[in-house]
Write a structure and sequence with these properties.
Layout: E1 6-11, H1 14-23, H2 29-45, E2 51-58, E3 63-70, H3 94-101, E4 104-110, E5 113-121
Antiparallel strand pairs: 1-2, 2-3, 3-5, 4-5
Length: about 160
């Protein structure tokens, strides 16, 4: 594993989520979105005000790894298949969104903490917005193309 390009130490509060997004802007909208979902999950499932570490680094092959560490190794994320009746529930979409955007994701448990991580392909830092220069993601069922903005919508690029 390489040394993180960004390390943010914070207390998990709703006010900090927007600061995380601002700090990760250079890494692209998908990294910002996944980080905010993971920090929000810590707030909701571990507790508001717990210490969190957010790390971002580039992996070989153009992939960006995002990791969010919190102090509760027992509160594991669960990907819910169907969100509410008719998909109208107001919560529960965060991990589904992360699963849709990430090439892969997982949890690393250690004594006294866990890290939820995901690997994303992004156009951030390439100096261009063209598809020809976008790193190619491995084929994955349900994935239309490498991260191209929120939910794959080109107009959502930052």
């Amino acid at each position: 594993m390489r040394r993180p390009e960004v390390t943010l130490e914070l207390l998990a509060t709703p006010a900090e989520v927007s600061g995380v997004r601002r700090a990760l802007r250079p890494h692209g909208i998908d990294v910002q979105l996944c980080a905010s979902e993971l920090v929000t999950n810590v707030i909701r499932h571990v507790g508001e005000g717990v210490p969190v570490t957010v790390r971002v680094w580039r992996e070989e092959g153009g992939c960006v790894r995002l990791g969010v560490t919190d102090p509760d190794p027992r509160a594991l994320p669960v990907l819910v298949g169907a969100v509410g009746a008719g998909g109208e529930a107001e919560s529960g979409r965060g991990l589904a969104l992360l699963d849709a955007l990430a090439v892969r994701w997982g949890v690393q448990q250690e004594a006294g903490r866990k890290t939820v991580w995901c690997d994303l392909f992004t156009e951030a830092g390439t100096g261009t917005d063209t598809d020809a220069d976008t790193p190619k993601a491995p084929e994955r069922p349900g994935r239309r193309r490498p991260s191209a903005g929120a939910l794959g919508h080109p107009s959502a690029r930052s």
